[in-house]
UniProtKB/TrEMBL annotation, chain A:
Lineage, broadest ranks: Eukaryota, Metazoa, Porifera, Demospongiae, Heteroscleromorpha
CDD domains reported in the protein's UniProt record: Rab21
A GO BP annotation: protein transport
UniProt cross-references to SMART domains, sorted A to Z: RAB (SM00175), RAN (SM00176), RAS (SM00173), RHO (SM00174)
Entry superkingdom: Eukaryota
Name by which UniProt lists this protein: Ras-related protein Rab-21
Primary localization class, coarse: membrane
Gene Ontology annotations for the cellular component aspect, listed alphabetically: endomembrane system
Region of interest (Disordered), residue spans: 176-222
Record keyword Nucleotide-binding present: yes
Pfam family, one: Ras
GO molecular function list: GTP binding; GTPase activity
Compositional bias annotation for Low complexity: 179-191
TrEMBL record, chain B:
UniProt gene name: 105315971
Superkingdom per UniProt: Eukaryota
Protein name stated in the entry: VPS9 domain-containing protein
Gene Ontology, cellular component aspect: cytoplasm
Organism per entry: Amphimedon queenslandica (Sponge)
Pfam families: VPS9
Length: 222, 243
């Protein structure tokens, strides 16, 4: 499905988070969008649906990040969530071999249902627990390459690798969408990153949970 | 409008109602809304902005909306839907119900099956996260269970609504009841929605969700909400098919 352009000319994309329960899907996205992490994994904000606005090389992008239920019991409901997705982040826990097997199942299913149209990222989370690692980097990288995905290590706890992963994902999404660029207004908070990419974190409304929109009417990325 | 209502009711309602008429009824309703919207634009020619601007600014200038309402009036849909659906909803709803009669039968069986369980068994069955289950069932803190029950009570109002925007508002209010639940990731949200839908004992949920998919003006967060209810509906329906 082609990404649609929302209010303010930003590109609306749907990114779905998949993976077994307890691998840290929600922690990754909360860390990225709200820069939050709690060891006890307790937070009061709703975390099922989050949005992040970015400007990359003067092109505006709004990531609509959809969380999914990790319980096996709800696995069959996956297609309802990931249909029409532009990108998928499949998360596994580097200390849990079973979660990697489940991640492979998700990837197989995604490729079957969405074909190659979906930008795919495989994420090994909990990289801070390196000493307990059971999935070797070489295996994970090879697997990711074999399914046309990129592989990243992240640690939501230490806030490592997450920004890079989402940045790469966003760049690939923009590349895929071609040249429908929309110059954005200059923002003084822009930061220059290696490789000549100007990234602006338009941060912004992030805690609008599912159904919590009220009547704002301004869309997400105005 | 009265004539439109009569024509629509005679065409699609009453004893002639048939599920195969649904696609035609949908096209007709969409056409009616589009035509009415054109009339609004003719009445306010000086407001030649986008569809959203025309209706929002138009109403504000007429003094029909106070600042709070203004926030809610963000599109032609939110303005026209209550006017149109108030009149034609009974006939249209019947077509949706007829269209989903088989799915909704399975769903009703699923609801019946799940509602026979006590809270503890139900929470385990729907894989409500263990730590929250302990909190709820430990009787130390019943607020979570109260929140879920309050959300279910909110959902029971669904049968009294007709405009798509009202349904979305209802879903928002139901979610607000859950906002005290910690770590409301999808691992918690989806079982919670299954729980409240079962407790609310809603009938024809499949028909309602299809109706909203066709007519609701949704923002991305609303889409996520609808998908969550759709997932819960399918989960319950599957349980009904297995029994």
């Amino acid at each position: 499905m082609a990404a649609r352009t929302g209010g303010g000319g930003s590109l609306q994309v749907k990114v779905v988070l998949l993976g077994e329960g307890c691998v840290g899907k929600t922690s990754i996205v909360l860390r990225y969008v709200q820069n939050q992490f709690n060891d006890k994994h307790i937070q009061t904000l709703q975390a099922s649906f989050l949005q992040k606005n970015l400007t990359i090389n003067r092109r505006r992008l709004c990531l609509n990040i959809w969380d999914t239920a990790g319980q096996e019991r709800y696995h069959a409901l996956g297609p309802i969530y990931y249909r029409d997705s532009h990108a998928a982040i499949v998360v596994y826990d580097i200390t849990d071999e079973d979660s990697f097997t489940k991640a492979k199942n998700w990837v197989r299913e995604l490729r079957k249902m969405l074909g190659d149209s979906c930008v795919l990222v495989i994420v090994g989370n909990k990289s801070d627990l390196e000493k307990n690692k059971v999935i070797q980097e070489k295996d994970a990288q090879e697997y990711a390459a074999s399914v046309g995905a990129k592989h990243f290590y992240t640690s939501a706890k230490q806030n490592k690798g997450i920004e890079e992963m989402f940045l790469d994902l966003s760049k690939r999404l923009l590349e895929k969408e071609g040249n429908n660029s929309n110059p954005s207004s200059t923002n003084p908070s822009s930061t220059r990153r290696p490789g000549g990419i100007t990234v602006t974190d338009d941060s912004i409304r992030t805690d609008r949970p599912s159904g919590g929109g009220g009547g704002g009417g301004g869309g997400c990325c105005g | 409008m009265n004539r439109l209502e009569t024509v629509f009711r005679d065409s699609y309602g009453g004893i002639g109602a048939n599920r195969f008429l649904l696609p035609h009824a949908i096209s007709e309703v969409q056409y009616i809304i589009k035509r009415l919207h054109s009339i609004v634009r003719i009445l306010f020619p000086f407001l030649d902005g986008s569809d959203q601007d025309v209706t929002a600014i138009g109403l504000t200038r007429l003094g029909d909306a106070d600042p709070d309402d203004y926030l809610c009036i963000n599109s032609g849909y939110t303005l026209l839907h209550p006017l149109v659906f108030q009149r034609i909803y009974p006939s249209l709803k019947m077509l949706y119900i007829l269209h989903h009669v088989d799915d909704d039968k399975e769903y009703s069986r699923g609801t019946e099956f799940l509602s026979q369980m006590d809270d503890e068994r139900l929470l385990h069955f729907i894989h409500f996260p263990q730590n929250l289950c302990k909190t709820i069932l430990g009787k130390e803190d019943n607020t979570v269970l109260e929140d879920l029950e309050n959300a279910a009570i909110v959902l029971q109002r669904m049968n009294t609504l007709y405009a798509p925007g009202e349904f979305l508002d209802l879903f928002r209010v139901a979610f607000q009841q859950l906002s005290n639940i910690q770590q409301l990731s999808c691992d918690v949200l989806l079982p919670s929605v299954v729980f409240i839908v079962v407790k609310a004992g809603l009938s024809h949920l499949g028909a309602y969700l299809h109706y909203l998919t066709d007519f609701a003006y949704t923002e991305p967060a609303d889409e996520y909400t609808l998908v969550t209810y759709e997932a819960a509906y399918n989960f319950i329906r599957k349980q009904g098919a297995l029994t």
